Amino acid sequence: MCYAIPGRLIALKDNIGTVDYYGEERKVLMDDASIQIGDYVYAQGGIVIRKVEVEEAKKIIDAWKEKFFELKDKDKELSQNESTGSLEILQKVNKKKQLSDKELLELLAIKDKDDLSLLYQFANNKRYKEHDNASCVHGIIEFSNYCSQNCWYCGVRANRDIQRYRLSADQIVDTAKDAVDKLGFQAFVLQSGEDLVYDEQKLVEIVKRLKDLGVLVFLSIGLRSKELYQKLYDAGARAVLLRFETSNEDLFAKLRPGTTLKDRLQLISDLTDMGYIIATGFLVGLPGETPQDIINNIRLTCKLNPEMYSFGPLIPTCDTPLAKEEKIDKDLMLKIIAITRLLALDSNILVTTALETLDVQAKKEGLLAGANSLMLNITPQQFKELYTIYDNRVGVTEDLQEEIKKTVELLESLGRAPTDIGLY
Ligand code: 5AD
Ligand code: SF4
Question: 144 — phi, psi (to 5°)?
Answer without folding.
Answer: -160, 135
